[in-house]
């Protein structure tokens, strides 16, 4: 018998079948269309959601309350593209969750659909620089998008010309109201397009010299007459990772392009990134700046209400749910993403608890859950040394030490390092690591004056102790600490 209790073919053997559900039974059940009710209970509750997708970050809303001013500002600048002129470059900035991406995408969709309506060649290309974060990748992605578009333009044009060639072969005067004066001219154009199609080579994701990628992109974009708006979301990540070469190259392209024009729309959470730009790039990119201020609680309430009307069944929310989600998110920094997450999570918790309505308590639970998820993620990704420092603080707290000072943390830290064979940093470095943990909101470190004994830091944990400890111990290195109790005891013995 194989170790999983089957006969090696995946079938349960006789003994197992007598006690467990055998595969034959399962198959029979399926044939009968009969189930064992695993999902029935879960489905039986009156569902709270009408359409949960509307609350997910991937959903692009059709309406963006409280962003009319910013949307109009963008539209006023970009309308030049519909007149065949080059719009000024735009830099959009504001804190996370203030609707920058959603508004910019909304405006681009409008721009593209209006350009189709009036048959003006205008295109928007969106790039998320958190993912596409080097000059090579940005240029390659753009080049390939335009090559793909050029291919389809060429295909359409070839279809039209081949049709024309057939008609002109039968009746030569069918060329009279076209741009061609003879069948030869049509043939010549067909040849030209076929050569273009053969010569267009897509850029591989690595391996070419950057100047070749750049010139391929340049040729692809200039192949047709058009105005192109390049949306660089999280533009600060691109600059941080690979400097300002991409922006420099893109911003000087217009003087060399013959047929097309490009305009850049940069989106960032962090305005400081412009300090790292070459002054020419900085002034070109920031021709127009649009600020997205944080939402206040009332605005967040409107945003949530619009979404909730579609997302939830009628009467599924008690009156205080939306105001509470809005208030929590406004405290953060006016983040609509956080507000929507809270509302969705509260709904999910209510659904899981088979409640009929979402209540205030679900929102509070959701707030704790989101906060805990954040803490777990931050702690999990800390460097090992910071994890050891944090573990030392946890051990002290668990042993009832209050107002922990840096010296105490350092002593325990040293012993932990010895135990797991890690390098021991200086007390000064450990103090820095404590300040970093403070900035991340994991510990709270306040400087207190001890009169003539100078000043010291008093440290306390700001996150739930058991969950944080569990995350730390899931790290394979820290997991080696079998029994940490003696270290803390030793502190009292010294
Ligand atoms: N005015 C609004 N109306 C409706 N939904 C909004 C509004 N503003 C933001 N949202 C929603 O909030 C979420 C976050 O918005 P968005 O991604 O546009 O923020 P952002 O400012 O680009 O944030 P980040 O800088 O973190 O990318 C999205 O789900 C978006 O649909």
Describe the structure.
This protein is an alpha/beta fold and 494 residues long. The chain folds into 4 domains: 36 residues, no CATH class; 225 residues, P-loop containing nucleotide triphosphate hydrolases (Rossmann fold, 3-Layer(aba) Sandwich), CATH 3.40.50.300; 72 residues, Helicase, Ruva Protein, domain 3; 112 residues, Orthogonal Bundle (Arc Repressor Mutant, subunit A). It is built from 20 helices and 7 strands. The strands form 2 sheets. It has a 5-stranded parallel β-sheet, with helices on both faces. Helix 4 runs parallel beside helix 5. It binds adenosine-5'-triphosphate.
Which fold does the CATH topology of the largest domain refer to? Rossmann fold
Element order: H for helix, E for strand: HHHHEHEHHHEHHEHEHHHHHHHEEHH
Return the CATH architecture of the largest domain: 3-Layer(aba) Sandwich
- Low-pLDDT stretches: 1-31
Question: Number of helix segments?
Answer: 20
| Classification by helices and strands | alpha/beta
Count the strands?
A: 7
What separation lies between the terminal Cα atoms?
A: 59 Å
The Rg value, from CA coordinates, equals 31 Å
| Ligand catalogue | adenosine-5'-triphosphate
Level-1 CATH class name of the largest domain: Alpha Beta
Number of domains: 4
Average pLDDT across residues?
A: 86
Tertiary shape = globular
Query: Biggest sheet: strands, sense, closure?
Result: 5 strands, parallel
Beta-strand portion reads 5-15%
Q: Specify the CATH homologous superfamily of the largest domain.
A: P-loop containing nucleotide triphosphate hydrolases
């Amino acid at each position: 018998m194989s170790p999983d209790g089957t006969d090696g073919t995946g079938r349960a053997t006789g003994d197992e079948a007598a006690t467990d559900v055998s595969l034959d039974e399962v198959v029979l059940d399926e044939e009968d269309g009969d189930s064992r009710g695993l999902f029935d209970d879960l489905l039986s509750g009156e569902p709270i959601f009408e359409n949960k997708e509307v609350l997910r970050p991937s959903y692009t809303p059709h309406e963006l309350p409280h962003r009319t001013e910013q949307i109009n500002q963008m539209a006023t600048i970009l309308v030049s593209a519909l007149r065949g002129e080059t719009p000024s470059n735009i830099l959009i900035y504001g804190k996370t969750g203030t609707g920058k991406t959603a508004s910019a995408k909304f405006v681009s969709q409008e721009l593209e659909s209006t350009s189709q309506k009036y048959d003006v060649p205008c295109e928007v290309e969106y790039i998320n620089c958190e993912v596409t974060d080097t000059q090579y990748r940005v240029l390659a992605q753009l080049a390939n998008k335009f090559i793909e578009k050029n291919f389809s333009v060429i295909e359409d044009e070839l279809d039209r010309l081949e049709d024309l060639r057939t008609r002109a072969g039968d009746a030569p005067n069918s060329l009279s109201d076209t741009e061609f004066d003879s069948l030869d001219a049509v043939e010549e154009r067909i040849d030209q397009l076929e050569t273009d199609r053969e010569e267009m080579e897509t850029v591989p994701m690595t391996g070419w010299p950057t100047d070749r990628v750049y010139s391929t992109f340049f040729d692809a974009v200039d192949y047709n007459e058009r105005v192109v708006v390049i949306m660089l979301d999280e533009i600060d990540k691109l600059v941080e990772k690979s400097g300002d070469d991409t922006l420099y190259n893109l911003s000087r392209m217009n003087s060399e392009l013959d047929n097309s024009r490009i305009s850049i729309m940069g989106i960032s959470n962090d305005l400081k990134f412009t300090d790292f730009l070459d002054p020419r790039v900085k002034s070109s990119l920031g021709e127009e700046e649009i600020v997205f201020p944080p939402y206040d609680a009332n605005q967040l309430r409107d945003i949530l209400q619009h979404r909730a009307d579609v997302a939830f069944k009628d009467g599924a929310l008690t009156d205080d749910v939306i105001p509470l989600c809005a208030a929590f998110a406004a405290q953060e920094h006016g983040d609509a993403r956080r507000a929507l997450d809270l509302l969705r999570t509260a709904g999910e918790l209510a659904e899981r608890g088979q409640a009929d309505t979402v209540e205030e308590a679900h929102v509070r639970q959701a707030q704790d859950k989101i906060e805990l998820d954040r803490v777990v993620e931050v702690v999990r990704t800390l460097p090992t040394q910071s994890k050891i420092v944090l573990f030392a603080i946890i051990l002290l707290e668990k042993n009832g030490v209050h107002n922990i000072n840096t010296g105490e943390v350092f002593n325990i830290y040293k012993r932990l390092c010895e135990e797991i064979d890690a390098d021991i940093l200086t007390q000064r470095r450990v103090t820095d690591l404590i300040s970093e943990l403070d900035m991340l909101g994991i510990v709270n470190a306040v400087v207190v004056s001890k009169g003539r004994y100078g000043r010291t830091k008093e440290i306390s944990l700001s996150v739930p102790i058991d969950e944080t400890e569990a995350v730390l111990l899931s790290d394979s290195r820290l997991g080696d600490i079998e029994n940490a109790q003696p270290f803390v005891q030793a502190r009292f013995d010294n």
